[in-house]
Design a protein that fits this description.
Low-confidence stretches: none
Radius of gyration: 27 Å
Distance between the termini: 58 Å
Strand order of the largest sheet: 1-2-3
Shape: rod-shaped
Order of helices and strands: HHEEEHHH
Mean pLDDT: 93
Number of helices: 5
Length: 140
């Protein structure tokens, strides 16, 4: 409610400021009644479109990360700062550079995520680093 009162007060102040200037009063009236609604309609549409795009990209990113990690079973050991990959039979060490190469190559193949390549890479590496090898062993 404070925003409404402040906005109304500002408009009243402007009309007071130009009380003797018919041209300026006419311009303010035209602007407030004709241009301002269209400006706000455009701002609102842009905001809604932006939010929709953001949600769509976040969903695509999360789906991509889940699928990638389902196929590529990477694990991390923070005490040694080493990464491991599991091929459904054996664990072997893998360098962070090799993981990054695989991550970035996979993202590049997904045209929808190219604009979010850096963000997806960062999210992916955080998920991999939180996928601790010893936690995996303790599940059994």
């Amino acid at each position: 409610m404070n925003e409404i009162n402040e906005s109304c007060s500002m408009i009243q102040e402007l009309f007071k400021q130009y009380t003797d200037d018919d041209y300026m009063k006419s311009r303010m009236h035209q602007y407030i009644c004709n241009r301002l609604p269209k400006i706000f309609e455009t701002i609102h549409k842009t905001h809604v479109t932006s939010q929709t795009y953001e949600e769509h990209m976040q969903n695509n990113q999360e789906t991509f990360i889940q699928n990638f990690l389902h196929i590529n079973k990477y694990y991390y050991v923070p005490t040694s700062e080493k990464f491991f990959i599991y091929d459904n039979e054996h664990y072997s060490t893998i360098s962070e550079d090799d993981i990054l190469h695989n991550v970035l190559t996979s993202i590049s193949k997904n045209k929808q995520l190219l604009a979010w390549k850096k963000s997806t890479k960062i999210q992916m590496m955080c998920k991999i680093k939180s996928n601790l090898l010893f936690n995996f062993y303790h599940r059994f």
